[in-house]
Amino acid sequence: MAEEPVPHPLDPPKRPQGRGEATGSHRIVGKKAPRRKVAKWPIAAVVLVVLIAIGVFGWNWADGELSTRAEAQAKACVAGDTPMRVVVTPSIEKPVRAAAERWNNAATVVRDHCVIIQIDALSSGAVLDGLVGRTNLDAIGGLPAAWIPESSYWVTELNTAKPELVGSPAQSVATARSADYPLVGLAGKNIDEVQMRASQTFRQFLQQPAQQADFAAAGIKAT
C-alpha cells in the first residue's frame, strides 16, 4: 500500500468536502433556490367576492332608502286632511269610537289624504228615516260617509227605498245576539271618492285584531 505523501508545511490546507460540492451534485453552496411563484387566481377570486358583496350591500341600502322616503311621503298627507263622518248605532259606539281615535292618532292616509274620522251615535230607525226622506236629513246631521246599524235589516230597507245611496256593499264588523253590525259605505252629495274609499278601509280596520278586542271587551263578538 502506497504511503500518502507528507504535506509540505507551506502547502495550503485541504478543505473538507461538503455536501454542496459533492462530485456529481448540481447544487452549489451559497446559491439561493429559485422563488416559487404564487398563483394569482385565488387573489382575483377574493377581490371579486368582495366587490360583489359591496355591490349587494349598496343596492340594498339604496332600495331601503327609497322605500323609507316613499313611506315618509305617503304619511305626509300631501293632499291635506279629509273629514269622514261615520254614524253608528249606540250599542256599538264605544268600541268604534276607540277604533276611530286609534285611526286618527296614526294619521291614516287614504289616497294622499289624512282621513279624520268623526263618530256620531244615532238610532238606526232615525238614520233610516233621514236617509230615505221620511224626516229632514239635517235631523241626523246630514249625509254620513258610512253607517253601522244593528243589523242588515236596515241596510236592506235603505237599498229598497234609496239604492243610489249605497256606495259599497255592507259587511259585518262584529256580531251579537240578533245583530251583525254591517258597515255600509254611502254615496251622494259631498261624499267624494276619498271618503268612499276610506269607508271601506275603515271597515277593514275594524276587522283587525286590536279593534276586534275592543268589541269583545264591550261584550260584542268578533267577526
UniProtKB/TrEMBL annotation:
Keywords on record: Membrane, Transmembrane, Transmembrane helix
Domain of life: Bacteria
Region span, Disordered: 1-33
Record-annotated membrane-spanning stretches: 41-62
The protein's name: Extracellular solute-binding protein
Organism: Amycolatopsis thailandensis
